[in-house]
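Support request, please re-run this one:
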Amino acid sequence: MPNPVRILSYGVAMLTSVQLMAAMPSSAPIAAVKPYVVKSEHGDRQDPYYWLRDDKRQAPEVLAYLNAENQYYQQYADHYKALNNSLADEIIGRVKQDDSTVPAVKGDYSYYTRFEQGKEYPIYARKPKAGGAEQVMLDVNSMAEGKDFYQIGNFQVSPNQQLLAYAEDTTGRRNYNLKVRDLRTGKDSATTITGAEASIAWSADNSQLFYIEKDPQTLLGTKVRRHTLGQDVVKDEVLYEEKDSSFYMGVANSADDKFVVIWLGSTVSNEMLVLKSDDKSGKFTSIAPRQRDFKYEVEHIDNRWVILTDWDAPNYRLMTVNDDQIGDRSRWQPLLAHNPDVFIDSFQLFTDYLVINERSNGLDRVRLMPWADLTKAQYVASDEAAYVAKTDNNPEQNSLWLRYRYTSLTTPSSVYEMHMKTGEKRLLKEQEVLGGFDKNNYQTERVWATAQDGTQIPVSLLYKKGLKKDGTAPLYQYAYGSYGISSSPSFRSTVLSLVDRGFVYAIAHIRGGQEMGRAWYENGKLLKKINTFTDFIDVTDYLVAEKYAAKDKVFAMGGSAGGLLMGAIANMAPEKYRGLVAHVPFVDVVTTMLDESIPLTTNEFDEWGNPKQKAYYDYMLSYSPYDQVKKQAYPAILVTTGLHDSQVQYFEPAKWVAKLRTIKTDQQPLLFRTTMEAGHGGKSGRFSRLIEVADEYAFILSLLPATPAL
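Re-run finished. Output below.
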């Protein structure tokens, strides 16, 4: 019987791209033009599609337009439905459906997550450490029944391990309901806390919950409240209120459960407030007062705090302070010095060891250091050119076994345990990839592209072994490039569906991320944001020049801030890309950042700039994809969004697509799909998300000419 993967090659056994264009619906939805002025002290701008914004998501005219776009998308996609279905079967077919995580021991139980065959959602369960039957804490499949969207954002077990507090999202808007389940009976309490963040912390005596109340308009966390179980929510005490709307909030227990910790963070500064978890009447105390351009994170062990900070250390250093000396950073003592070549990402504390997650030369590494002599460091080793090694779930500080996760573009995610004293290493689990996957059939490579200003940009590549670098292969290039978030070269089984069809998969580690240290981020934000976009284009040029890819078969994808990247390159270098995919794209930069009523806007001022200041207004306007749409030919573009997205509002991509339709000069497909029951992360079920990936890949493959079988 023929191999369906080989038969389908790029676009095969289906319409050619020319035939597809001829088969497209004759008329795309055209949004009405309605005069509207976006006012600013630096100049007013006409926004004829502003009417597409409906904060209640109920306006018939808006919903009609979104539904018309969805219908147009579906009519187009129906022409390669066979390919789409085959890709979905192929991608889902690689997933071990009845899988489970490696159990992690804390207290008297081993905790784990498992999936059942054919089920969309996880089951969170535990077993007694001493042996005994499984106890299901949350069966998300049954909890999600009858709901268009359902997601557990967080859960925390009480110190006595008899109660479970969990956060559920039923809309995709990340506006959570908090509930408490008695694990002895499996019953939820009658009280539900609504309009909350997913953050949860417990008091030491199991009687109280600490949580964060959200502002209903901006969806920012504003107040930390303490809830006594069994008490009416209206009586919940406000322990802290954040007045600065540029700060995010979180609350959690310290790793040793001795403290409740409030995390407060903006782009350029942090503050940590702590309260002993057994103190029922005290107030939160700041580890150190906030200060602009000063960041720190803390964790507790014994009678001291270990602090990760950028204080006089752009790539961060570690310091420490005793419990009775918090509140004044002048009392902090050096622990691990700053290294300009090594970025300290995070750390974990053990009784006998300090473990560091760090980045050097753009790679994620794990460093182990005994408290007895921190100079005697050892690293988790790798033979691969591009890889990711990071600590995993280590809930008990008194353990000598370090659990860490290792992966690369060719190596499925693998959980290891390493004895920190003897060096003994055990593989606990490697992600099982079905469908005949063999990692020896693939090659990963790290190359460096030269940017316009001479900066060397690292690029992680994946392709089938035996690839001929003759400039004929199609390219799928991905990047994010914002908020200092690094795009690690981790294994993704979904992308094999492109690589097996001859694609080169590239992750461009562009500025705006933090792959090469803090300076990498600083040189890709605010008034240097343009570097993010030009870096991506320069990586494309390099891969084409070095014959990794054909210049007429280059595809790119990005989501959220990466969707901004897609919008920017579409305007700046449309001729270099055959097709672009922009998921939940942030494309209406200036209008959004001018409006502080839009959720999360004020937190972003230190990332993009405050357009109330002319320098930032002008600079942001110069690259804002919606504002810079021009009369020119564009690549084929697929745009997706979720109606209930709380991060990037649906109307940004809706307006962008509407404007592109009326201005662009080409006849390439422009498709816009709104998931009416989802938010920023797409649909909530695991298979639903994989089907969305298949939709994306089918769109890309449909744009390539039919080719001989692989």
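The mean pLDDT is 91. The chain has 14 helices and 39 strands.
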